[in-house]
Fold each of these.
Amino acid sequence: MPSKYFESHESAAYANMAEPPTLISLIANRYIGANPAEPPVWRVYDARGISTDAKARSIFDFGERFPGARPGDAAWAVGDLWCRADRESNFQAACKGPVRIYVNGALVFASAGAQESSHDTFTRFPVSLRAGRNRFAIRCECTRIGFGCALANAMPQWEPCHYIMPFAAYNGESGFAYTNPTADDAALCALLAADENVSDAAFEAAEWNPPHVRTPQGPRAVYDESTGVVYAWAAFEADRQTRDFVSAKSPAVRDILVDGRPYTGGEVSAGDHDMLVCLDASADTPDFVALSRDIALKPPFYIKGNTSPWLYAGAFDAPPPDPERLTDISRPFEARGGLSFWKTQFAGVSPRLFIESELYGRWTYPLGVTLYGMLRAGERLGNSTYIDYVMSHVATPVDHDAYALYEKQAYGFPGLNEQLCWLDALDDCGSFGSLMLECDARCPNPRAEAIAERIADYILNKQERMPDGAFQRHGSTIWADDMYMSVPFLVRYALRTNMPRALDEACAQLLLYRKYLFMPEKSILSHMRSLRHGRTDGLDGTPNGIPWCRGNGWVFFSLSELLPRIGGSASDAKDAPEQREAAPRAREAHPARAELIDFYNSLVGGYLALQGEHGLWHQILDDPESYEESSTTAMFICALVRGCVDGFISREYESAAIRAARRAWRAIAERAVDRKGNLYGVCRGSGFSFSRAYYRALSWNFNDTHGIGIVMLAGVEIMRLAEWLRDGGARA
């Protein structure tokens, strides 16, 4: 029977690519090719522009900006949002007067009635975004009680919206351009509420803020300082060997460094160079050095927007800091008044950093799973390309962590590491944090330690809990998903820091979730439990009783992450043969190990009974009419194989588990992966419901990161299983 996702001859198996090394490589190569390493982007940001608050809401505070505006006046703001692919998204707005919002010329929101005086109450509305540029045009009208609005994506930590000023004159600066208020905006309205290709006409039709033409200023004007020192930094390219190319033009200059060394004259070679000038903060002119005619300065790193060649750092009290430290642009520095970063020669204008790749360099929980699978695949296959790709991706958010926290402090919402800076749920930290510790164990990064401590503090001390200590979400719910969002990190953190409390927490949470979510009649798990509604089983709240596949997968997979790392021997598994050799352990058996093994084996029995006729498990585990879901199937393969190889599966299930895992792997190759390495049948990220119809309607995504890495990891585990069986089934 052909796959429901593609014709059978399009499958990886049909193309003779079902063996784990081949299929893993096929998936990994497609993923890397589609998501190449892409560095963050620097863009100009003007403090006079539209600001963003800590919840990623763009604040169009026209009442404060234009105190002289009269009722009936209107102001427009326009910004471009770039998307890598078409997608449906939800936005929300809070109004201080009549507001209309257009996207690509289509009216997507028009305030009415009470909404126009809600101020802090947000109204949600859908937006169809397309691949490429999406032009947002916001019209706000002044009334007696307010003028402006706030706009945000409904889930900004998941869909960060980095707007770019439209019109060629702004040259790619960050933010929104906005007009002065006017009582007659009919012509502008006709342009901005029409097709987006009228950019030039709209630009000519109004005076736009902040101004795109600016005058460079000296340090005194930029910093409003008269004491201390600043550094000025620029780069230049010499097209030939050049002698005595720069000299001090102002007595404010203290030192000139070229390529990190003091320069007092002499030659520089042809090619690229950078130049640091240490000068008094009281310098009131940007022309503090004299250059030979064949030297043209440029910013020391590439910045999109209208920037100046010189950047300033300071002001500092003497002695000034180490120049090498200042030129590390991945982190801020301490200046007078606290943390600071480089500024342009335009007052209030600074470079800001944004991650604009869809999947590379980001910190999200699905990417934590994806890259964990690729890392293990690279190790198993001896493929350094996969390992290097993962390490490079992880290094991007880790190396820029301090800078991202500075951005959050300075600008409200950062342009990178959004979830890690948000840090409001287990989703934000645990999965990618676990991956980070995996990478750090292979190549230590001193900046990872601070992140790990912050995550551990959040999970252990700040995460919301029930009275018995079980993790709960803000909406008074318990979700099976949260076991993967916490347990793998806690285990790795405990082993890294020798902290028993973290390991105890991981064990305790799994057992608490068994208490609240386990359905004994089928030996599987309910997806979630509402703590706001009644008691049906003697415990707080009510489970929804729906075994959503990936919720079960997160718990089962997390058990397989924990059990090999909490001591004991392979013979601890119930009814395990006495001749089975003990697996190597890092410590003595944890007191909860036997109970956790019992939990694991209870789930094994339930899941084996529900494997679908073709070898995959279904979107709703006990509903064979729901679609075949590939990410859960891969999680089940991993957990079943680990139970056999690492010695915690019951003897009564071992043979059946081996058959089920092999059958499931073949089914993935036949029915879920095509010959180009594309993955099908991964359920999109889920909310929750007490209705089965909701879960039946949850569609699957193409090449979804919830599934790509775990399928690669399943292939790694199938390879481990084959080795274990060749060795007689006795080696962990």
Note: The longest strand covers residues 74-83.
Amino acid sequence: MALKKFKAESKRLLDLMINSIYTNKEIFLREVISNASDAIDKLHFISLTDPNANRDFEINIEVDKNARTISISDNGIGMNSDEMESNLGTIARSGTFDFKANSDKETAETLIGQFGVGFYSCFMVASEVTVVSKKYGEENAYKWTSAGVDGYEIEPAQRDISGTTVTVKLKEDEDGARYSDYLEEYKIRELVTKYSDNIRYPIKMQVEKPSNNEKGDKKSTVVEVETLNSMIPIWKKNRKDVSDDEYFQFYQSKFYDYEKPLRIITTKVEGNVEYTALLFIPAQPPMDYYAKSYKKGLKLYSSGVLIMENCEKLLPDYLGFVRGVVDSSDLSLNISREMLQHDRQLNEIAKSLEKKILSVRGKMRDDERELYEKFFDKFGVTLKFGAYESFGLKIPDLKDLFIYYSAPEKKFVTLKEYVSAMKEGQKEIFFASGSDYPSLESLPQVSAVNKKGYSVLLLKDNVDEFVFKLMDSYDEKKVKSVSSDDLGIETEEEKKDKKKKQDKSKKLLETIKNKLSGKVEEVRLSNMLGDYAVGLSAKGELSIEMAKVLSSMPGNENIKAQYVLEINPSHKLFSLAESLLETDDEKLGRLCVLLFAEALMSVGIMPENANEFILLINEFMA
């Protein structure tokens, strides 16, 4: 039979289909299996009204290593000569698209193909493709054969029942491309599991298995037909019908985590965009979670067929630790089915998933506090970054999920819990920022505020104070650092006493500031230092901790807070400074350096000259 030309503007278009649309050669098996599934769906639909069409539907894969062929067969609706001409001879003509257009919504949603180009992905790996098909209800079968861009042939063939067999003759191996791998059982298993595990018809293949008979030291093998796919996606099953162990096995096999997840989330949504999702909250962040190479995102399926391994748009960055799958039949796929044409559906699904995940977090916070604290210890910082990186837009959604360590109660509390337990007359939410809880608890300002009967939230994550800055207040209560000048917790008598001492010591405070040569913006007295001689706070909008974070970033090394040196007027070193002011100006200068170094260390900053600091300690201890 004479070679027929493809009905599209042919060579250039087919070259584009084969070489540009698909990014991964292994996709060809997914496409052929998906087409087989669609063909069975069509006959299954007919069988609802035609009992003769009912049969045990299945897809079979057969490999011939000698001939270098892999064949995928179905017992679906099949094609006649005219349909081969239109569906295979015309590039981008889809029989499934036409069938969907004339079917009810429920039936159409189960069909995957719509562009009519998936079949041509075979030519990425094939030197020749043969299709033998027989249309349901017709007597004759036909064979379509093509070696690619030159065209195709259609001729009569033999086939007992309706359905289609696609035989791909693989190219010879070449540099960088081992086409022979697709003839190996392990590779076929891998691809079926990865892309087509959830096709609802059994995908069968003859496989070699060890027999129970032993000959000498070697075990003999037998060939058995095995179903390679699970058929029913675990996320499509009712939650009550799946055990936690089954979910864990799925989670472990898909995401390679050997620790059970903290929480399993299942959801099915109907509305503008319909989808089913199965999500997992890990017990630990993945080892590469904070590396640039980490790929966040959920596995995206369309009617059970894997479309994207990591769909980043389904999750905001701050929920990037969530693992799982989303399956929707409403997606507008591009012609390669490797990405979406429109973001609208994804955006709607993403918003719905975000709301669901936060809702589950809130329920865990209220009902399983110990488990929630474990979760927050591992992933709380990412939630905080979500609030910060959105410039505060996410704060209304996230603020009640934050928990902070409270001193002196020594427990984690939410902002709502802190406010509900506030002392009568308290107007602010007090906090202290630092690197770790023990250091923060020992800060003189924290101790002093605690002694007054007020709780202090201890913030140890770099992003904490930036979030508080954006938040500004909670439930109309301002957030305030314990290092602030006026906390509003001193009695009128204490304020008067401090002002009196401040005025009396004005000369000494000015001298200390001058002795420190511009290292501090201000020197003042403080009644909030307890047993400490000095403390350090900051003037202006940039706190000490915020300056630490910013200066640690490349290019920001010179960023520093405007330091305020606070001196305890009740400490003996203050009395020593007063006496040195009148008797030994040089020694007073050395004492000022010592006091400033001590103040720096109290907030976790090492003095510039550690040796000088040691010598000064020795001098004033002698």
Note: The mean pLDDT is 86.
